[in-house]
Design brief:
- The chain has about 210 residues and is an all-alpha fold.
- The protein contains seven helices and no strands.
- Helix 1 packs across helix 4 (about 85-120) and helix 5 (about 120-160) packs antiparallel against helix 6.
- The two termini are about 30 Å apart.
Length: about 210
């Protein structure tokens, strides 16, 4: 289920890039981050300090984005009304490599929790999951910006623009990542110091 939801999120992001819808692109990326973090923290704090809470946060964020994706595609008339098996077979054959890639990406992104739980127990996996949730923000912001910048950079190169013009985008990207890292570190320290229980403070090193 999580793999399917992640596939829908990636498809949504690609559509927004193609339509050059920057506002919705940013809103969806931020909504996914906010939902995933909020649900994970609430479940870990009030329900269970295990990796299951982290997984449910991932599932909830994916479900919210999937619903918005379906509404968006219906509004734009992108959903098919009849199933063409020939087209479906051709698309599946073409996209099988992408499906395998997304499967690998999903397992790489979630396997760390399984290893922590296997070697250190459920309690440590829960504490690790909280810190990993905050750290994931940096990764999501990074990948979201890259997904937006790639087609922009390709268009500039296709238009014949030289490196001095294109490198300004890289400079803005690096500056954005640096600013995100600082703000995220300050925010995480604040949450650990003033909002989470004392037992969590001893494990803030998982974030770094």
């Amino acid at each position: 289920v999580c793999l399917l939801l992640n596939f829908l999120f990636e498809a949504f992001i690609i559509l927004l890039r193609m339509h050059n819808n920057i506002r919705l692109f940013s809103a969806i990326s931020l909504l996914k981050i906010f939902t995933e973090i909020t649900v994970s923290i609430l479940l870990i704090y009030f329900v269970s300090r295990t990796w299951y809470s982290r997984a449910m946060g991932y599932l909830a964020a994916g479900a919210v984005v999937a619903i918005i994706f379906i509404i968006y595609t219906r509004k734009k008339g992108l959903l098919i009304k009849a199933l063409d098996t020939k087209v479906l077979t051709r698309e599946l054959t073409f996209g099988i490599s992408g499906l395998l890639l997304q499967t690998a990406v999903f397992f790489i992104g979630t396997s760390d929790k399984f290893f922590v739980m296997a070697y250190f127990g459920k309690d440590q996996a829960g504490l690790y999951a909280v810190a990993a949730t905050f750290a994931t923000i940096q990764y999501i912001v990074c990948t979201s910006l890259i997904q937006y910048l790639q087609p922009v950079i390709f268009k500039k190169y296709a238009a014949g623009e030289k490196w001095p013009h294109v490198k300004k985008l890289y400079g803005k990207y690096i500056l954005g990542m640096f600013a995100t890292a600082i703000m995220l570190s300050v925010f995480t320290i604040f949450v650990y110091q003033f909002l989470l229980k004392e037992s969590y403070k001893q494990h803030i090193h998982y974030f770094f």
